[in-house]
Amino acid sequence: MKHMNSEVKEERTSNKKRIDLFLVPIVLIAAFLNLFKIWTDEYANAYYTAAVKSMLQSFHNFFYASFDPGGYVTIDKPPVVFWIQTISAKIFGFHGWSVILPQALAGIGSVLLLYVLVKRTFGVWAGRFAALAMALTPIVPAVSRTNNIDSMLVFTLLVATWMLFRAVRTAKFGWVLAAFAMIGVAFNMKMLQAYMVLPAFYVFYVVATKITWKKKIAFLTTATALMLAVSVSWAVVVDSTSADKRPYMGSSQTNSVLELAFGYNGINRLTGNTSVTGSSHKQPAQAQQQTASSETKQTSHSNAESSQSSNQSKSSSSKKMQAPGGGNQNGMFNTGNPGPFRLFQKGLSDQISWLLPFVIFSIVGLFAGVKFKGPYTTKQKESLFWLAWLLPVAVFFSIAGFFHQYYLIMLAPPIAAFAGAGAVALWSMYKQRNGWKSWLLPGGILTTAALQVYIMSPYVSSIGVAPIAGVGALGVILALVLAVRKERKNAVTNYLGVAAMVVLLAMPAYWAMTPIIYGGNSMLPAAGPDSSSGMGGPPSTATNSKQSGFNGMQPPGSSSGNSSSNNQMQPPSGSSNGGQMQMPGGSSNNGQMQPPSGSSNSGEMQMPGGSSNNSQMPNSSSSKSSSSKRKSGGMNAEVNKKLLNYLTKNNTGEKYLFATTDSTSAAPYIIETGKPVMAMGGFSGSDPILTVSKLKAMIKKGEVKYFYLSGMGKGGQSDVITWIKENSKEIPSSKWQSASSSSQQGPSGNGTLYEITLK
């Protein structure tokens, strides 16, 4: 107890010291990477931005995180982060940057928190290096520059970590309760993803506290109960509210928050089975084992049957993109193929793994000589905490069936912590000539440089040979020189060590800047020379590497000489369902990659949480705006003014401006007008929200009369869409269609506007 009290006094004394001047430039770097040019993103992630616009209009929408102002359906995540974004928009005005700002500040806050957490135990230089490594981890600023949830989630979990460390130092149970309650708050940001850190919290508290086992079990049980209570508090309120008095819970199949938490946003992420109304997106094992050509060609056609028949033909019109399971492809959304080395595969390694070899060597050094039964030093205990965070999360991403690249931000804190703590520990072992341990520093530098060369090698056409060769050569030279000079202690050796750390951080720093240099994507944020595509990953064999962010598929918002080509995705050979392949939020059409029903650019693929490639709204102009602002994360999401004028002029008091099948078409109109637009099937168009009888009742009440449809309905919406087409009057396109959109091609054409009035 005396030792704990002395630690508390030491902490109070250290808090009175001057600000660490070395930390200032690190924070400024983080601020630049997270904040610079966020004001150019006008829509951000349009799906979430539309929700903020709706939440600003009433407390009802605010509490439930309603996607639309009419309170028809919610977004697919809990509300806490969007409450914060809404408050920010209320204070600063509704802008793309005002909904991004909380996440950008959270990214900077995470850098500061990691400095505080590492510095206290491992020393000031460890804290500085950890903070810098966190700031320069490419996926961290890439996510923090958007209104996606993950940056705020990581910041909240680091706050919980700070509380837990304080609980152990002060032996106060209140801090334990606060730490676990904070995880409960994080659950209400992104559900089960927040629980990934629980192994670290349990292991650390058991190992680090000097109390009886009886008290440990009692304290942890109580803290866990509080965490669960906080976690489900909002869900219980929502699920216990009558369905007719609240919005439908988006992306659930039973209108339940708990089902959403443990299904769509939970176990299904691990299994890859993100099923919707009876159809599964999970690829069968047989399909995953098949390989196929990654560069087949086909003739471009404007109708589905022609496209299907051309799947086996070859031409130079367009390139197919192979689905997961292809032998030489990068998996679904560039997340690689499951396996023990997945984090070193293309598409993931350049987001998070730049320092992983050095981290592995650091772990070896930090745990060298540790006995299973202890006793453990404070450094060893906290190293165990970061290890218990790192390993389970790394295992999850190594085997998970479905996730996006930006989820990898969950690995950033433990990697940065080990990079900082390990740099100091390995340097100390090296300087002390501590036997085999003294070889860990040059070994870590050499292997890390080698991995970085491997990570960069697919990007030769984008970044050139010089930086790749430079990192490789400098890494090898510095490692060898340090190995040779192991017996010498002078200033030159110190400079060599610092130079090695600079070399290892140089390319991660460049990668972290790519969302600023090349443009970011708020739908699917990722770092790298193809960051604007939303599919950060190595270029394919496409002619222009900047347009090949998704294995040769034209990235969102870009244009090419073959703009009319049908970019299709080839399903894995041997796949079920007639060779069809489904993507999250999309449907298949005889082996052709198909957008969600209601998306207006047929043949394109919808991005989860966002809009489709090129993101054309109902008959919007296909020409790019001259404005310097980006809409929908670089996607050309434009509101069709002629359509909007027609709908506004002919509205006779209906609640909804119009109805469409999914959020893609609805979001920009909600953002621009603040008026209710009904996404009948929720985000992807597959939610079983609406029935024919319910729709009839809404029409009779005068709540909606216009329907914009593009493509066939899917899942629970098929009957509704069929009924709409059979009982409606088609509005001539000349009345609402922009002339510039008449050339749009694809199986679904431009879409159709219908009007229904029932007596």
Query: Measured on Cα atoms, how large is the radius of gyration?
Result: 27 Å
In whole angstroms, the N-to-C terminal distance is 79 Å
Question: How much beta, percentage-wise?
Answer: under 5%
Number of helices: 27
Report the count of strand segments.
11
How are the strands ordered across the major sheet?
8-7-9-11-10
Low-confidence stretches: 1-5, 276-329, 540-627, 632-636, 742-749
Report the mean per-residue pLDDT as an integer.
80
Please identify the structural class as seen in this structure: mainly alpha
For the biggest sheet, the summary is: 5 strands, mixed
Please explain how this structure is put together:
Helices cover 48% and strands 4% of the residues. The relative contact order is 0.11. A hairpin with a 2-residue loop joins strand 5 and strand 6 (592-594). The longest helix is centred in the first third of the chain and has 27 residues, at 96-122. Helix 3 (46-55) crosses helix 25, helix 17 runs antiparallel to helix 20 (440-456) and helix 22 packs antiparallel against helix 23. It is mainly α and 759 residues long.
